[in-house]
Amino acid sequence: MKVAYRMNTLYSENSLISRFMFRLSNQIVAYLFMLPALLVFGLVAWYPVARSFQMSFQDVSLRGVSTWVGLDNFELMQRDPALDIVWENSLEFASWSILLGYLLPVFLAILIREMRIAKGFFRIVYFLPTVVPVSIAIIVWRFIYDPDAGFLNGLLGVFGIEAQRWLQDPALAKPSIVMVMTWGAFGTTTLIYLSSLQDISTELYEAAELDGASPINRIRHITIPHLAPMMSLLFVLQVLAVVQVFTEPFLLTKGGPGRETLTPVLHIYNRAFMRADMGYASAWSVMLVIVLMVFSIGYQLVNRKITKNQGA
Amino acid sequence: MDRGFLSDTELRTFSGRLYYYGSMAILLVFAAVVLFPFVYAFTSGLKGSTEIFTSGLRLIPKHPQWNNYREAWDSFEMIDLFYNSFVIVSVGVLLRITISSLAAFALSRLKPIGGSIVMMGFFLTLMIPGIAYLVPLFVTLKDVPVLHVNLLDSYWGLWLPYSTSAFAIFVLKNFFDRIPPEIIESARIDGASQLQIFVRIMLPLSRSILLILAILTFMDLWKDYLLPFLIITDPNRQPITVRLYYLADNYYGVNLQMAAAFIALLPPLVVAILLQRHLKTGLTMGSVKG
Amino acid sequence: MKRIALFLIVAMLVIASVPVTMTSGQGTVVPQVVTMPEQIAGGRDVSITVSDKPASDQPEELAIWDGQVAKFQAMYPNVKIEGLELKYDPTAFIAMIAGDQLPTIFKTYFTEPEKFIGQDAVADLTPYFEQTGLSSIFNENVLAIASQDGGLYGIPDFAYSLGLAYNIEMLAAAGYDAPPATWEELAEMAVTLTDKDNGVAGFAFINDGSGAAGWHYTDIAYGFGAATEDIIQANDDGTYTANFGEGATVDALQFIHELRWTHDVLPGATLDWANITEALASERVAMVIYAGDQFSFMKNQFPDADLSKFGYAPIPAGPNGSIALTGGSLWMIDSAASDDEREAAFYFQVWRQLDPVEYESSIVTQFETGRAVGQPVLPLYVGDYQAKIEEFRAQYDVLPVENYILFNNAVKNGEMKLQAEPPAKAQEYYSELGILVSEVLSDEGVDPASRLAEVEEEFQAFVLD
Fold it and tell me: Hey, where are the domains in chain C?
């Protein structure tokens, strides 16, 4: 900037040129600051994204020459026996995850907020699973779920319930995996809600209390509306995250039993890195991106409409 | 006064107490559920190789085999695994913070032409799941354009992807936006260059946010599985998430797996407990990323 | 990927039982079959990387390795060998193909050549086999696995077939003095052997929904009388037709369905290649479909396991007798390697595999360090050479080979036939069927016949057409 400063004085006669030079050098400095980010993003994000799109129209050979095949990969997708199942699974995973893990953090956060002691304790404890690598936690969870020797079936046995095949039963595999995901994630969301709750002015509650509003009504009219924007945001993020889930089903069930826990990303992984069919896997990637974008945009539109209606 | 939707007076009534202790009980039950896998890993790690298959409900082993922990420590080569993860993750954090803050500073203060387009470019990467370009990422890292170096099986192959975070750029830009312009103006009049302003004014002012970002990034990268699984094929250089799982899954009895898992779980737990003060603020911010 | 030449029915070697004689200590029992060249790569400096270097937690194996490398480098000072502690993994290796990261020479499984050859990732070794005349030493059926379109792409280093491993004590306790001879018998015995209260399953096979599960299923289907063309048929016009939607394949799947839902003799846990051994070793299953080399795995990974408890028999017989699928491993060379590197890699591998001194000393060391010697596998070589190495090895058997007599005799006498894999897309077929098997095992409502027909149609449309 020193340079620019001097230039400024040097060309003070001609303010137009000097201003231009000043701006130019300013721009150069700005882009120098962004250069590392631009280079790295270009290398490991933008370029590969473009390549992925390109590869979805190719028969990709890892060593040799890739050939253009037009829409072949997308046509093949229509014949893929996994196509419908994978998206149904995603929908079911998302539903289970919303069911088990969406309202729970709201509920727990409200409870913790009321605690007069041990708030910090709960905060830490609930947060602990979120720092644990999934691949390590799964070593433990897999044995908790073990149908013959696991703790969970031992526990059921106490109540005289017969042993369940948590990860091998089509009816249980998805919720069992979602349990692991929820365990690993609900702490973060609980803390987010909790800190949002701390922002509510206590005067609001006092005023409501003086007006004779019951505790339930205070939650309904003060707490929940306050949390609503955050809840709306976290809803989308949770769905997006669940549709992209990979590590849990990959390590716990490999997509089984049958294809019950096969997710889009796991399928992409299988095609690309087990079968070496990179072109076809890229076509799936493109489809996944489209689905996620359509969902996010659609959700935002609907959401905006609702808020508008409420405002009116 | 600290109060929630219930006032202290209400809490002293009978139903208030009922509610209070009821909810505490619920919270405690959840805490127990949450902590259970850790406890289970610990005690199962003490069991014998056959006892573990017959114990069912019994958590506490009959004859604790403390030796299991030593054996797991040795046979899983824990020190190496921790070391690998530490190197991978700390350099990743450093790069991400450096690159992101530089870019955020430019976007926030230097008003580059096309800045909003660049910003959109960064955001694009948040919209597209990583797996969608994993395959070409691979090919790119194998033969980096222009430089023609191969980054596969090298930590650079992880550090470069780790150093990109649209989220970090976004958070830092927002933070920089809120720094009063007068502070910077006064520095500029003193003749400070933009780099000096960045290093001497912006960074010190953003210490807290940088620390929080660093902690969040550290935890995030420490947990990563898929990328190192694909990129680092040399078993001696793999991070703990990849190598430990592989060894556990392929070679060792369940009791040793549990012991090893418990050892591997400890450091993140300790870090989380020690740094939880910073995390409180960090997480609210993290919500944007989900 | 074109078709790969594969086994048809393999007539097994009859191995003369040679009385055990101790070596004098000077010469070797095993004959010299490989003539090592004077010079490798014309004396030019060449360095190669080799997979499967033993890790530091296996000091004995590592010592053998280090010794071999030192010796070979002394013989050929221009060759530099770098070992990689890298074991085959499908994902990692696809990454390595893409990244030009393959080791110069690496070990992989019999299931993989098709993929590597299809990606042009491995070198044709025909010239070296011709130079050394080694193709005549190997069992031609095993070589066929490494061959495609006239090229020979790998050096097989061992071959096994599936068999039935069983817990002798458990069978005896239930009043059985022999393993089941037929699939019906197996089902009956499994019912008796199952003890759910104590977590014991009567029978198990790989059930994790992976290709390995499809592979075990296919072995059962062969046992029920399916021929390879009943699974995938090669047509005259070069196309393929999926045929597994009816016939013996359905019977086999129905059988699995009954084992699970009628007889309830299968384990609840998901068992893959590794932990099916743990289940057997910890006596949670009585009988399993097992590969002979897995006894070595058991011996090495589960030091507490008492191997004398386990017997090994041929796969139970069906309408066509006892029929087994084969597997094994082979060494392949990166196609990106230069001629010099290929030469060095090829000779290093055949030397340490076939050189009499190397072979014998590695067996002796394995014996001395208590590693598994004597696993019930298939003869990899033919003629006198095979006879001689068996003769030599017999002195050092560590495993309870008397427990494997049923299997070994069936192999020797040709009672157990080896049947080829389906002629095309075998791996894709295995993985589809693995998924279906896991479906059948997890859901009683699945009708094997109609689901197989559906999967056949999907497979035809998605994979073959």
Answer: 41-152+327-371, 161-325+418-464
Residues of C in contact with B231 (CB under 8 A): 95
Q: How many whole angstroms from its chain centre is CA B236?
A: 22
Query: Would you say residue A256 has pLDDT above 70?
Result: yes
Asked if residue A257 has a cis previous peptide bond (ω within 30° of 0), the answer is yes
* Structure-block tokens of residue C31: 């004959």
CA angle A121, A127, A130 (to 5 degrees): 160
Residue C324 backbone phi and psi in degrees, to 5: -125, 150
C388 phi and psi angles, rounded to 5 deg:
-70, -40
CB contact under 8 A, B235 and C86: yes
Residues A128, A8, single domain; the answer is: no
Judged against a pLDDT cut of 70, whether residue A165 lies above it is answered with: yes
Homologous superfamily of the C41-152+327-371 domain (CATH): Periplasmic binding protein-like II (3.40.190.10)
Which chains form contacts with chain C, at 3 or more CB pairs under 8 Å? Answer: A, B
pLDDT at A312: 46
Q: How far apart are CA B53 and CA B50, in angstroms?
A: 6
Model confidence at B56: pLDDT above 70 = no
Residue in this structure with the two tokens 């807290």, named with its chain if needed: B208
Residue A171's Cα: distance from chain center in Å? Answer: 24
Put simply, the answer to whether A258 touches C438 (Cβ < 8 Å) is yes
DSSP code, position C282: T
A187 part of contact set with chain B, CB < 8 Å: yes
**Which one of A162-171, B42-51, C168-177, C352-361 scores highest in mean pLDDT?**
C168-177
Residue C162 and residue C376 in contact, taking contact as beta carbons nearer than 8 Å: no
Per CATH, the number for C161-325+418-464 is 3.40.190.10
Q: Across the interface, do B110 and A36 touch by the CB < 8 Å criterion?
A: no
CB contact under 8 A, A258 and C284: no
Q: Average per-residue pLDDT in chain B?
A: 86
Domain carrying residue B16:
8-71
A73 to chain C: nearest residue by CA? C462
Beta-carbon contacts below 8 Å between A and B: 318
